[in-house]
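FORM 7B: Structural annotation worksheet

SECTION A. Query
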Amino acid sequence: MSRKIRIGVISTSWWADAMYLPSLTSHPQAEIVAICGRNHQRAAEMAEKYKIPKIFSDYKIMIEKGGLEAIIIGAPDDLHYDITMQSLAAGLHVLCDKPLALRLDQASEMWQKAEAAKVNHMVLFTYRWMPFFRYTRDLIDRNYIGRFYHGEFSFLVGNGRKPGYQWRLDGQRSNGALGDLGSHMIDMARWLVSDIAQVEAHLQSFINHPGAEGGQISPANDSAFLLVEFATGGHAVIQASFVAYLAEQDMRMQVKLYGENGSLEITFPAPGQNGGANVRGARDREKAFQDLPVPHKYWADVKPTEPFGIFTRQAVGCRLFIDAILENRPVAPNFYDGYKVQQIMAAAQESDRSGRRIAIDNSV
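SECTION B. Predicted structure
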């Protein structure tokens, strides 16, 4: 019988139900043996749904007594460091949701500890694996845009317009739109272009939200605007917002890349695409942009209108993490990528406080 990886999941959120648990369940060599959540009833419901034998309310006890080889950390950002460090001390392979940590020093320590422990480590930068962005990366590698001049990376949602407490807007628990949405776009910029050398940023909190108990809150930004310069040349705008009114859309992501040889523009979800994306491009001297349909090999048996289906059918995300453990090989994006994104986030916060342009140390 094929070896199975015994894995525990720390999260009972909607995202765990939509991403982690279905993805792991779909892998024939992943065995979810434990789930942990503060709400025992919710954890029990998830355990019944996914046939998970052990339920915990304390992650420390799960790490100690769960019989795990690997762990998925889907808890809020302020818990990532403690859970990861204890998991690494126990010799577990670790997949952590983005952003890697709350602070740069924590992210650095997590990365270095994971490397020293010689375990597999991954950060779930979800959109790297989307077929339309993988296709975009291949077009760039084939010199479609040539030397990069400038670009735009935008991730907008409207969740922050809703009343009530949200931990993602609590400055004690998260880095706001910069961390939750901006981390995706920072990683995308690094992956598609290069390391970032300098950052100027403005962070804003437009809407007042109550604390968890209805009292005062230390607000996190609900809108982030970054101007970045790349180590290889060129510059870009990175924008993230929780307060964008998008009418019938839940979210909007756009990546625009302009270079010496041509331009690429990616919109997800694209109007008229029934939830799918649109990739369009124009080479130098062409008179108009044209649609660039994503080739079938990137989708395989996944419908372009249901792109998140890749996480239960392809070797991406949690499934890639399991494969890497089984094959004893490194995987990306990993804690180093998480650390580099945290560098940019920390620089953006310093730039916002000081009003200065902040240089990034890319020597590590």
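SECTION C. Observations
Residues 5-126+314-331 form a domain with the Rossmann fold fold (CATH 3.40.50.720). The chain has a mean pLDDT of 96.

SECTION D. Sign-off
Analyst initials: ____
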